[in-house]
Amino acid sequence: MIVTTTEAIAGHRVTESLGQVFGVVVRSRGLGGNIVAGLRSIIGGEIKEYTALVEDTRRHAIDRLSINARLMGADAVVMMRFDSGSIGQTMNEVVAYGTAVKISPLGGAG
User: Fold this and answer.
1) CA distance 56 to 60
2) What sign does the CA torsion over 9, 12, 16, 21 have?
3) Strands 2-3 and 12-28
4) For position 36, what pLDDT does the model report?
5) Considering just the CA atoms, what is the radius of gyration of the chain in Å?
6) Which of 23, 39, 52, 81 is geometrically suited to a Cys-Cys bond with 96, CB 3.0 to 4.6 A?
7) Domains of the chain in sequence order
8) Pairing between strand 91-105 and 76-87?
9) 21 CB neighbour count, 10 Å cutoff
10) Which residues, at least 6 apart from 69, have a Cβ–Cβ distance to it below 8 Å?
11) Which residues, 6+ apart, have CB-to-CB distance to 58 below 8 Å?
């Protein structure tokens, strides 16, 4: 499954647009992670526990997006974007979204 943030995929053409596709994940750090992150926020700088949480959540959202696109019969997702936000004080939501498409390779050079 090709997932791209661009409208076009190099070496391919879009043959059919299948519609919107999403991958949604909501995560919460455990109590221990929140305590460590809280202590780090006092000192300042990057809070690695939350960085890791967001990176992992984004990967998971892309995986769900890809699964949903395959279920629609897609070969690729174009114009993929992320949206994220907080739910309460302890949860983070990430949505990966884009357009599910069918693609085919471009013909030979001419």
Assistant:
1) 6
2) negative
3) unpaired
4) 65
5) 18
6) 23
7) 2-105 (3.30.110.70)
8) antiparallel
9) 24
10) 1, 18, 21, 76, 77, 100
11) 82, 94, 96
Tell me the DSSP string of 5-46: SSSS-TTEEEEEEEEEEEEEEEEE--HHHHHHHHHHHHH-S-
Residue count of the chain: 110
Residue 96 to residues 9, 28, 49, 72, 87: CA-CA distances in angstroms?
A: 18, 18, 21, 16, 17
| C-alpha dihedral sign at 2, 75, 99, 15 | positive
